[in-house]
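Complex record, two chains
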Amino acid sequence: MILRVALPWRNGLRFRVPSGSRGCCRSAHNTLRNDDGRPIVISPPLVSLDIPDDWAPCPAHSCFSSPISSSNEQTATVIDGKFIADEIKTRIGSEVRRMKEGIGMVPGLAVIVVGYRRDSQTYVRNKMMACAEVGIKSMVAQLPEDCTKDQLLGALSSFDADPSVHGILVQLPLPQHLDEGKVLDVLRPEKDVDGFHPLNMGNLAMRGREPLFIPCTPKGCIEMLLRSGVEIAGRKATVIGRSNIVGLPTSLLLQRHHATVSIVHAFTKNPELITFVIDVGTNPVEDPSSEHGYRLTGDVCYEEAVRVASAITPVPGGVGPMTIAMLLSNTLDSAKRVYAFT
Amino acid sequence: MILRVALPWRNGLRFRVPSGSRGCCRSAHNTLRNDDGRPIVISPPLVSLDIPDDWAPCPAHSCFSSPISSSNEQTATVIDGKFIADEIKTRIGSEVRRMKEGIGMVPGLAVIVVGYRRDSQTYVRNKMMACAEVGIKSMVAQLPEDCTKDQLLGALSSFDADPSVHGILVQLPLPQHLDEGKVLDVLRPEKDVDGFHPLNMGNLAMRGREPLFIPCTPKGCIEMLLRSGVEIAGRKATVIGRSNIVGLPTSLLLQRHHATVSIVHAFTKNPELITFVIDVGTNPVEDPSSEHGYRLTGDVCYEEAVRVASAITPVPGGVGPMTIAMLLSNTLDSAKRVYAFT
């Protein structure tokens, strides 16, 4: 019973799932159902996720899509991240409206982008659109590729001083000449909605402490598991990759939820069997037929994994939308803290 | 090839080692030897351990003691923590003298103790004696069991303001009425020689970052492994227990050294096989025949483990002396940073 979370591995290397091991993870067949037989999206609260514990059952659509029939007997439950994210965004939207009606304020998110990487531009555009959907005010500082450290810190400190900004994020990666660590150190932990400040990370790691923010992608992964009825406590979880922004916080968060966590990385010799796959990879693949000239795929060989895992998230439509929903949730949390709005 | 680090488990539960698995960890037989055939204590530097990389070979004594002959065929190499710690203390002593001669300053360590737990009193006494041995100035603030939070914070801030104090540690555990987390938050990371501040922990967890201090017990464990010629990179390491002061930082530190780390805790179902044991447990056992009325034992069933592990540390004489040596090393590092003394 291994719950494997596949995170960005080496660039270009797609992770292959060994066949022959199938887990006992709860599948669509034993999803909790209400009296009508309709599936209930269970929503235990995430650490510091300040939104209600009880959620309405999904009206017409389950967060588990039905297994697609195939000659190769696909049995993995496909977790629909986009559906879960939409549910969360709807709830965040109503919280934002309640805040606006109650105190005349809305949460504000500021994004700093350096340069014009097409993947970064896409991510930022998606974040802005999601903010608009739920009523969060958003603003972007677009800096040139060759901007100086001082220009970047200047943008940071002006957002830091702006009381209408409750969350600031620096879109990563930064160009080589800028030291990410030093830039992130300057960001106040109180506005660090990405949760990448070492103080937030330390508080995530330590028992009995609460970070002000949990990094959005790991938070989205755990939220998907919880809402899909996967019990994390006592399960073995293998995290592939140990980056500061995904692998590390995911392992810390799984451990907070009492999983027995193993972290696999470039030095690991024999990665173990898989029964559950959350694919956090996003690799741009050239595709002239698609709107932007490329499309995104995950790190996992989906066609193989879907036949041996007990549940899986697709790319796109899995972790991506959840990450954005968690960013909105973190920004809302931040504004609530500032205004002492409950 | 599992390298298992046994950390404090549940109180009173001694960890039993399943037989039948023996690792391929480097034993006394293949310790590096110099031209005379004498073993060389290898000393790669620990992260932030600011003492020289090359160490003199052990003159007459190896840090590996010879296997004791036994009818039950003990094959585990016993790692002599006390010997390694003495080596390190000798080096720290000469560094302190060099500092005193060079700039007329010595490192200073302040310890705050609340109440009169006999184990805490023993630990503090040992730390003070070790400071005296190497020439580090030490001072203790002994507060009554029922002291208020403000009294404790007062002691902390007076040491914080004292420029001759380069390291402050609050002896844990504190009495129930005092919130450890809140007390440790007040300690400035620059004097946090125990490395328990969340900012130091976050920087320990994150790649590309350096904590100002690494917690002493984990640092001592890794140092023992490195000096015993155990290669950590690529090995599987299982950390039993996930406390903030031992289990968590040990797993983070092993991961920094590129081990594939699994963390086993109360929710874990089937802990795996063992080949290497570092016993970090210290359990006081009533013993009227001993000087203080009790003696210390580890968490591991030593008599069993010594027959199946490839290497093992005893209690006492394993991790304990290393912890103190690392505290001295952290205090020395702190003073060097303050005085920009290299």
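Note: Chain B touches chain A at residues 180-181, 197-209, 233-234, 242-244, 248, 252, 255, 258-265, 267-269 (CB under 8 Å).
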